[in-house]
Amino acid sequence: MCFSATVSFLSAGVLAATGVFCIQKAFKARNHFLLALTPFLFALQQLLEGFVWIEYNQHNPVPMTIFSTAYLFFAFFFWIVWFPFVAYCLEAVKWKKILFIFLILFGLIFGLYLWLPVLIGEGPRALIQTSVCGKSLCYDIATGGLLPMPVREFIYVSLGLLYLLCSDVIFKRFWFVVMLSAGITILIHVFAWTSVWCFFSALASLYIIYLITKASTYSRV
After folding, report:
1. Do strands 136-141 and 127-133 pair parallel, antiparallel, or not at all (unpaired)?
2. Distance (Å, rounded) from C-alpha 86 to C-alpha 33?
3. Which of 62, 78, 195, 215 could cross-link 29 (Cys pair, CB 3.0–4.6 Å)?
């Protein structure tokens, strides 16, 4: 995240507290339990980036790379599997459930394509270095491979747009805020896209409190 380790750790704490509240509320709307877990997962990701900041500031390249790799696990792999899975569990329309099964499988394949080179540290798409640019963490990834960087980014964003097809109003409204944050990131901080969008998405998960609290007033469309 931008700014500092302190901001990352504070946001992790707020998100963890949000997760506790959301889970309590989700007991009254049991089908939203997985969505209620999302702030907890964002909290873990923000915690990892806090440790990236610490190791960067202390000039410890090996642990910094380890924490960067763990952080990118969420950014490159986990989220593009988790969110279509949540959407699938909430979906009532048959053809959309089939679509989300496909998106889960595609997310598994595409996510491994993005993250495995980071994990093994070799070849195209491997993590070159973690640095600071514009007061934000930048994860410099090797270019090359079967899919050029613009194609990979296009696929990643397109997957996010498809999640908006979920019939569940709570999920749809939350995900609209996440995609809005993506647009803001492109406009103001595109050079640190991975770090900043994940932070904005984490903040968007705070919206889940309101959505789940008001769950009884929503209906499927």
Report:
1. antiparallel
2. 9
3. 215
